[in-house]
Amino acid sequence: MSQDRPNTITSRRIVLKGGVGAATLAMLPSVAAAQAAAAAGPSSAKDIRIMDTITTRDGVKIFFKDWGPRNAQPIVFHHGWPLSADDWDNQMMFFLQKGYRVVAHDRRGHGRSTQTDGGNDMDTYAADLIQLAAALDLKNAIHVGHSTGGGEATHYAARAEKGRVGKLVLIGAVPPVMIKSASNPGGLPIEVFDGFRAKLIENRAQFYHDIAAGPFYSYNREGARPSPGVIDNWWRQGMMGAAKSHYDCIKAFSETDFTDDLKSLAIPVLILHGEDDQIVPIADSARLAIKLVRNGTLKTYPGFPHGMATTHADIINADMLAFFKA
After folding, report:
1. Annotated catalytic residue within 66, 86, 261, 277
2. Which of 21-25, 71-75, 146-150, 179-183 has the lowest mean pLDDT?
3. Domains of the chain (ranges plus CATH)?
4. Catalytic pick from 78, 87, 146, 147?
5. Does the annotation count 143 as an active-site position?
6. For residue 51, what pLDDT is reported?
7. Which tens digits make up the pLDDT trace of 151-168?
8. For the segment 79-116, what is each residue's pLDDT rounded down to a tens digit?
9. Active-site residue identified among 78, 105, 110, 306
């Protein structure tokens, strides 16, 4: 497939293992027929979407999930570092059942997308999303971003074609800017992020386990009841991606200044943040971001962790649904 064609949608490769009989093979539709059916649009309950990647202008494959009625309002989910679209499975199932079209992608270098050694920056992430939105014809979409994904969603929303974005939700998100500087004295010192980079190189698998088992979900707090499944799932998602992309992304989420992006947004913005967020401290993120947006609402949660969309999904989902319907 040519890499110079923008927004090229590719179909999932069908792998046939040995031992499949001729009669079984005869029952399988051809890839061309499946593509033609997908292009024609859904016509019955039996129709399925076989497309799960786009190829960007620079040849990178971006994996995505796209569930629900094509004519329903889309909700686009942006995952945190170093995770994947799978981190939104709870929310995707919840809002799918509410009648929405739900979309989530693996950021380049993360999950099932191409393990790139370049382009791991917010400008390129936003450019990838512009191409994804065009390929899937997403209009008046609600964008929901967690942590790094909140920065990505903000950066995209400030650059999106008119009519593409209807609302924005930021959950434990990194904007306006994380790193400490003369203009951001309350930020985290660069040594914190240098430590992330050093641990990623030294033993990425152990580092990712320690984050999930500790501060990400506040499982390091007295009286916490860690979920082995949640910890393992976080680790699984992280280890699917590329170490080089994750390394570069630390700079992207910590040093990108989203101040101008936030100021430029005229759409409604809902900012949700846990008051016990140990990864993105609330004082230098949500409490500053709300002062920069024109049409924003801030809701904070005492004792909730950075990963509250997982640990307190019922509460977060209900608050988002109310915002979507408002």
Report:
1. 277
2. 21-25
3. 1-52 (no CATH), 56-325 (3.40.50.1820)
4. 147
5. no
6. 77
7. 999 999 999 999 999 999
8. 999 999 999 999 999 999 999 999 999 999 999 999 99
9. 306
Q: Is 273 a catalytic residue?
A: no
Cα atoms in the Cβ-side hemisphere of radius 13 Å centred on 108: 27
Q: 122: which 2 tokens? A: 């917010």
* pLDDT tens, position by position, 181-213: 999 999 999 999 999 999 999 999 999 999 999
**Residue 146 catalytic?**
no
